[in-house]
Amino acid sequence: MKKALGFLAGIFLLSLAARAFQTAWLGWSGGHSDVGFWWSVITGFLTIAGLGAVIGTWIHTRKAG
Known about the structure:
Layout: H1 2-29, H2 33-60
C-alpha cells in the first residue's frame, strides 16, 4: 500500500510539473519572459519533488537482501 501511495504521489507531482512546463512555454512564446522564467523555476522544483517521491519510494520499499 505504501508503495502505491508513494508512486501515485510522485506521478501526481510530475503531472503538475508537466502542466507548469506548459504554462512556462506559453509565457516564453508569448514574449513574457518573467512568466516563463518563474514557471520554469516552479517546474524544476516540482520535477525534483516528483522524482524524489518516485525514487525514494522505490528505494525504501525494496525487499531486504
